[in-house]
Amino acid sequence: MKDYLIDTHAHLDMLDNVDYTGVGKVVIPSVEEKTMDKVIRIANDNENVFAMVGIFPSEAKTYSDEIENRMIERAKNPKVVAVGEIGLDYYWDTSFNDLQKEIFARQIHLANKLNLPIVVHNREAHKDTFDILKAENNGSKVLYHCFSGSVEYMRECVKEGWMIAIGGVVTFKN
After folding, report:
1. 88 - beta bridge partners?
2. CB contact at 8 A, 31 and 56
3. Upper half-sphere CA count for residue 31 (Cβ side, 13 Å)
4. What is the edge-to-edge ordering of all strands in the sheet holding 23-28?
5. Beta partners for 143?
6. What is the DSSP letter of 85?
């Protein structure tokens, strides 16, 4: 078997031209309802590209039963391999944290129902993200995208069997 890299989180839908030399497989997250069809189309057009369906925390106000039903339909496509990028983000706007928590839990339940992994966005919301995942997840694999927590927090996540992805921010001096 040939060794290759897998990029588990590339927003190819936001780029014009991509050269992924050396990367064998790529997974594109969706962040809002209107991007889901685009990421699935890109995945369908490229053998080694796959897609996620999910609503980003900042878009929680747009989540509805109708969107959830469309996510279920889209997830029938074999190129859809995860529910993501979902989670909590308390960095920019904390006025709707309770709604973010509710929508995060709903999408965890959806991932469980679809038997798909969860790709988590967590910014400035470590305790709530951990607590909701622990309480609500019932068997889906978990990948923390662009992990930004402490080493201690990472250890607690790994104890739960969750995977950690380290993003480029680790190269920042601060």
Report:
1. 122
2. yes
3. 12
4. 5-7, 23-28, 49-53, 80-89, 118-123, 142-144, 163-164
5. 119, 163
6. E
What six digits make up the tokens of 162?
Answer: 């969750």
Say whether pTM exceeds 0.85. Answer: yes
Closest residue by Cα to residue 54 from 143, 158, 154: 143
- Only one residue has tokens 């040939």, namely 2
The HSE-up count of residue 167 (CA atoms within 13 Å, CB side) is 15
Tens of pLDDT, residue by residue over 88-121, are: 999 988 899 999 999 999 999 999 999 999 999 9
Strands 80-89 and 49-53: parallel
- 3-state SS assignment for residue 103: helix
Which ranges of the chain would DSSP assign to H, the alpha helix? Answer: 33-45, 65-74, 97-114, 126-136, 151-159
Residue 27 has pLDDT above 70, yes or no: yes
Residue 125 structure tokens: 């919301």
Q: 106: how many CB neighbours lie within 10 A of its CB? A: 17
Q: How many residues does the chain have?
A: 174
Which amino acid does the sequence have at 6? Answer: I
**Residues 6/82/133/147 CA torsion (nearest 10 deg):** 30
